[in-house]
UniProtKB/TrEMBL annotation:
SUPFAM superfamilies: FlgN-like (SSF140566). It comes from Ureibacillus thermosphaericus. It comes from the Bacteria. One of its GO terms (biological process) is bacterial-type flagellum assembly. This is Flagellar biosynthesis/type III secretory pathway chaperone. Keywords: Bacterial flagellum biogenesis, Cell projection, Cilium, Flagellum. InterPro entries: FlgN-like, FlgN-like_sf.
Length: 165
């Protein structure tokens, strides 16, 4: 059995993740420009991308398990692409699979970095909103009793401790 179907699935996964990366860059600009309506639309598009990626990943796992079964190798959990690379005998297919795996890993790393940046931007925006709200809200008056309100004005202070005893 050839690993070409698996390579094809990995290329589709790479394409979907590149699309998510482009959306992440756009999302950064939307957060900077405070465009919440477009950001909401972007999140819905991303959800459809994630669903498609999940389906492709399930298909990839199924194909890898089938490949191992046809080779007569027992697997308990879906094997990784790295494990697949170890058993491929055709040098050309092994190189193709390795190349597409490395490209996908690079896109995933870039996507993680961009999403981390977006998360930090959103967190900072929320902090700014909270600080602004706290400044605009009236501060409650102190509910503790002060000495003047307890004694009724300027009464001399008496100590409860008798120091002459």
């Amino acid at each position: 059995m050839s690993v070409q179907p698996i390579i094809s699935i990995l290329e589709k996964l790479e394409k979907m993740h590149k699309s998510l990366l482009e959306h992440a860059y756009k999302k950064t600009e939307l957060v900077k420009n405070n465009d919440m309506e477009e950001l909401d639309k972007m999140l819905k598009v991303e959800q459809s991308h994630v669903a498609a990626i999940e389906q492709l990943e399930q298909l990839r796992q199924k194909k890898v398990v089938e490949f191992f079964q046809l080779k007569g190798i027992k697997v308990s959990s879906p094997p990784s692409v790295a494990e697949l690379l170890e058993v491929i005998e055709d040098e050309e297919e092994s190189q193709q699979l390795s190349d597409v795996r490395n490209r996908l890993l690079k896109v995933l790393d870039d996507l993680k970095k961009q999403n981390d940046l977006n998360q930090q931007l959103i967190y900072n925006s929320l902090q700014l909103v909270n600080v602004t709200l706290n400044m605009l809200r009236p501060q409650p008056e102190e509910i503790n009793y002060s000495e003047k309100t307890v004694r009724g004005g300027n009464a001399p202070r008496q100590s409860l401790f008798d120091s002459q005893a």
